[in-house]
Structures are given as C-alpha cells and as structure tokens.
Amino acid sequence: MVSGRPDGPANGLGPHWAGAGSTGPRPRLHGPHRCDVAIVGAGLTGLSTAVELLELDPDRRVVVIEADQVAAGASGRGTGLLGPRIGPALTVARRRYGDDVARAAHRWSVSAVRHVLDLVERHRIPCDLTPGGQLVVASGDTAAEEQAREAEAARALGLDIPLVTREALPRIGASYTSGLRYAPAATLDPAALTAHLARIGEQRGLTVFERSPVRDVRPGLLITVVTDHGEVVADHVVIATNAYGGPGAPAGVVGVRVQAGVTEKLPDAVLAALSPLTAEPLIGHGELSPYFRLTSDGRLVVGGGAIRRGPYGSFAPSPGKLRAAVRELSPLLAEVELESAWAGPIGVTRDGLPVVGRHPHDPELYHAGGCNGHGLAASVYHGARLASWIAHGDEHAPRRLPWVRAKAPWVPRGRLVDRALDRYLSHLTAVSDVS
C-alpha cells in the first residue's frame, strides 16, 4: 500500500506542482499609471497576450493586473492536459455550423497545441512537457456507437482522428470498448508554464501587479482600469479573467469548479503497468467521466466526477469519486490513496464554445475565456491571437470561428435559477456514478 492517509487526502491544497516557478509576491497597484495595453488577469491568457505583444513591439508598455497572484486560478490548478478539441463534438458542430466551420474549428485547436509546443521550445520553458497524444475511451455500447459516429464525421471532414478498437487499446486493467486518438498533444506543468511566462514578460519590460482586484473598467477615449488603491489608463484593455468574470468581462461565461486529485508516488511495478499513460493520457468519453495521466515524478493524476457552481473555493467536493476512479482503472491501484485533492475554476458557456472578441460598445476592450474545460492550449493561443489583433488591427482578427464574438448566449441568473443549477450539477455528478 502506498502510505495512505487515515483521514483521507489533503483537500484544497492544490496540485503538488502549484508552486512551481514562483518568483515571490509582486507589488500591489498603487496610484495612477499609464500604459499602451492593460491586461486584467495573470493566467495563461493574460500572460501569453503580454509576452506576444512585447515580442511584436518591445517598446510597448504593457501592464498586467491580477486580483490574487500569478497562476492563482485554472492556470495554476489545472491537470496539465494539452490537446486539441474545442467546442462540441464534430457530429454536433457539423449540424450546428456546417462542415467548413467544424473543420476550421478543429484545425484551429490543433494549431493551438502546436503553438504551445513551439512556445515552450522557443523559450526553453522548464514545465515537464511530455509530447504524445490523447486517447478518449468509451465504456459500453452506446458510447462506442457515439465514438464511431465521431470518427466518421472526422473522416468526412478530412481530419485525422482514428477510431481505436477494443483490441488495440492499452491493457492497464480497465475495460473499454473503443477509443478516439487525438494528436498532437502533451502533458505539462501548467503552473510552471504560467510562472515562466510572467518571468519572460518581466524580463522584457512587463509590469505585473498582484493582489489588486479590479473594481471598475471605465470606457472613454482611453480606458481606465480601477483598483482599490490605484488606476491604469490604457489605449487597449484585455479582460482575461475567465471564470471569475468581473468588470468588462463578456456576458454568458459562468464560473464553475471542477475537481482533481493526485496520488503519492507509485511503486515501480505499478508505473510500468501504467506506462502508456505517460505519453497518452486516458480521458473518459462523456460529461464528468474520469481522466488520468502520469506525472514526470511517478504520480497518477485523476480528474472528473463532480462540478459545483461558482469559481471560488479550492476543496474537492467529492474526493471519494476520484479515489474510486483510480481504483477502477487498474487492480494494481486498489490500495493506492490520493495524496491531495482540490477544485479549480473553469469558465463554461451554454453552447460549449469560448468567447473571444471585443466589447460591443468599446472596440478597444478585448476579452477571451469560457473554454469549457479545454483551455490549456486554447487560452495560450487566444492570447497570441489577441496580441496580433491589437498590434496589427482588424486584418489580423480571428475569422470563420463561431466563438469570435462579443458575448456568449444569455445565461439566466438569480437565486432560484442558481438553486436549479446546483440541483442539475448534483444530478450530473450522481449520473456519473452509475454511467
């Protein structure tokens, strides 16, 4: 047995890599400041926007304003799955948007992965990057039929997403009926990537203010970003708060918390049996299905199985579900305990698509977020695309993508609606127990 904790895993502490690359606290925003571009949010989207802007124009004055600290949200609490896929399944996207858009959307997500791989290599960012693929696996005949239809849709669109038969799936203990293989992909330490982006930006003149919640974004000839103790006046402003919303954020993005956990280091024999997960994580087919990857130091990461409304809070709502998923993966994990479990915020939308664009009443106020749990590659690439848009004008705006928009579909809010949403999320969690 891997030294389990009698009182269960440490809950709410976050992944063991969450402090990777930290450079210590940065100053709060005090007094008035003037810059060319102000970015609200020091996560992957905000910092990738800043780094790209400074690469395009080293003399540009760029400021990042963060309510907490660098990588405090999903960028530091994610599970490090870098892969393609964005928005709904291809079968849905073809019906909803047509073949050209469905094809372009998936190819964009592939470009997003390649952009991150190139970024890490170009800047030699130490973030435990392991290139490979991703295998989305189905359990049961219904899920296998859905995967067969998805593979057929991919073939019709000329996309390379092969269907993997039961016989060709990795033999790690769990019984799956089929799989879909996605590439390129990788695993990495998202906190280290985010922290190093901040450091790269600061080496090029970026100013990052932490512990400075934004209270207001005032439009005008110049935009003013207001905090408790200071303000920044800028020609352009990027809102990169994702699940947290706030002033200037696009409507229709709802913050929720998803859970994940990590085991202690696994014995060599167990690691050998699970070795396929090193380069090709397993992701369950369907909502809230568990997913698994191995870390570079020999631990198993597991996610899925529970979701709660609201972006705030770090406690995993149902760590028992994570523990059960680990033990169902392989008989060799029957006695393995979680070292820690945590919750992290993601931004979701009604139609499952991100929101990238400009404020409907202020063309110099940009935003990006709402990746619906597929944000590692997309958030970094969104930052690069926003930077190009700001630097070069509308001729560099993203096109032919249904998520380039001022806002997401309207989401009703209010006490009764929130209660209904809580019940629905609890229902989804309960369904995941028996699916």
Please tell me about this protein's structure:
The structure is a single chain. The longest helix is centred in the N-terminal third of the chain and has 25 residues. A hairpin with a 5-residue loop joins strand 14 and strand 15. The protein starts with 9 loop residues before the first strand and ends with a helix. The N terminus is likely disordered. Helix content is 32%, strand content 26%. The protein has 435 residues and is an alpha/beta fold. Strands 1, 4, 5, 6, 7, 12, 13, 14, 15 and 16 form a 10-stranded mixed sheet that branches. Strands 2, 3, 8, 9, 10, 11, 17 and 18 form an 8-stranded mixed sheet that branches.
Shape: globular
Question: Roughly how many Å is the radius of gyration?
Answer: 21 Å
Classification by helices and strands: alpha/beta
Number of helices: 11
Taken as a percent bin, the fraction of beta residues is 25-35%
The biggest beta sheet is recorded as: 10 strands, mixed
- Helix fraction, binned, reads 25-40%
- Provide mean pLDDT, rounded: 92
Tell me briefly what this model is.
The protein is α/β, with parallel strands linked by helices and 435 residues long. It has helices at residues 44-56, 74-77, 90-97, 99-123, 141-157, 190-203, 268-273, 276-279, 319-329, 375-392, 415-434, and strands at residues 10-11, 31-40, 62-65, 81-82, 130-138, 163-165, 178-187, 207-209, 214-218, 223-227, 230-239, 254-263, 282-284, 291-294, 300-309, 338-348, 355-359, 362-369.
